[in-house]
Design brief:
about 325 residues; alpha/beta; eight-stranded mixed beta sheet; five-stranded mixed beta sheet; about 35% helix; elongated
Length: about 325
């Protein structure tokens, strides 16, 4: 599937954060949010509307409300009228601050949703932006299996029948967790982060040739599955090809590009007798070590170079 931008219903946002409904617009259930950006309309209250994006949720906190308190009702009505006329999706008032009568009046006039929360403005905006980033992130689906191994999200890819699902079940038996089998829905939640999950319809199900469909959550328990996981490593499984030169040292790092993000990757040949579950466990731990600044191949190479240098001195 190609990259796509998703939207989220405003009603789902309100439900997620348990907002108090002050005024509910007539089209509330039809309003969708298409951007993760959130705006505090301080400049707009002051009359500056250049570059104002009316697609963003607006958030007012203590600063905006106390600033507005100094004005007369007529002046506040004038300021809110100009802001509300832009028809942004919704206004959220934080810290349970007061709702001016003019706000209610203009909300009815423009049929615009107003909600309230006891959360502080900064914490709400941070949580709201993070939530929206995940919900409306660009995404596409790839054929593969995603498992969490020692805290690392490992995406196994390869042709059908190579052993991805069987390896995932072996990893689950060894205490790791399944995220998705067969189809992995990948979301780009930031410029550096990919998050994988399973389509709802096949979540927790795995197909094992010769057995059929099994429900991992029911057989192995709730601790054997996970809803989402960052993708930290891509492992390409392929049938062993005699004569092909496979990397035996790991000096050169390989990467797989997914939605513009380069993810460390390995190509692991499959043949009878190889325990793929153990290999993937080691690959996961090794990948974590590399991210923490330690590379065993580089360490061995440095030791050899030092040994050779000491030998020449003697």
């Amino acid at each position: 599937m190609g990259n796509t931008t998703f939207t989220i219903p405003l009603s789902k946002v309100a439900e997620e954060f348990s907002f108090e409904m002050i005024y509910k617009s007539g089209d509330f259930d039809k309003i969708v949010i298409s951007t993760a950006d959130v705006n505090r309309p301080a400049l707009q209250i002051a009359g500056y509307f250049d570059y104002f994006d009316a697609h963003r949720i607006q958030v007012m906190g203590k600063v905006e409300i106390t600033y507005l308190e100094q004005f007369t009702k007529e002046k506040r009505y004038e300021l809110f009228d100009k802001l509300f006329s832009t028809k942004f999706p919704a206004l959220i008032v934080t810290r349970n601050m007061q709702i001016f009568p003019e706000m209610r009046e203009l909300a009815e006039k423009y049929d615009l949703t107003i909600m309230r929360t006891e959360e502080s403005t900064s914490s709400l905006m941070s949580a709201l932006i993070s939530f929206l980033n995940v919900q409306i992130a660009p995404r596409h689906t790839r054929h593969g299996v995603l498992v969490e191994v020692y805290g690392e999200g490992v995406l196994m890819m390869g042709e059908s029948g190579v052993g991805k699902s069987e390896t995932a079940i072996e990893l689950v038996k060894r205490g790791h967790r399944l995220v998705a089998d067969d189809a992995v829905e990948i979301k780009k939640v930031s410029s550096k982060t990919l998050v994988g999950s399973s389509p709802d319809i096949i979540r927790h199900f795995v197909e094992l040739r010769g057995i059929g469909i099994i429900d991992v959550k029911e057989i192995f328990g709730i601790g054997a599955v996970k809803a989402t996981e960052n993708i930290n490593l891509v492992i390409n499984l392929e049938p062993w090809i005699e004569g092909k030169q496979y990397d035996r040292l790991g000096m050169e790092e390989e990467f797989t590009e997914i939605m513009g993000i380069s993810v460390p990757s390995l190509t692991i040949p499959v043949k009878p007798g190889r325990n793929l579950a153990i290999i993937i466990e080691v690959a996961s731990m090794n990948n974590r070590q590399k991210r923490m600044g330690y590379n065993a191949a580089v360490e061995l190479n440095n030791r050899l170079l030092n040994e050779m240098a000491n030998g020449e001195k003697e």
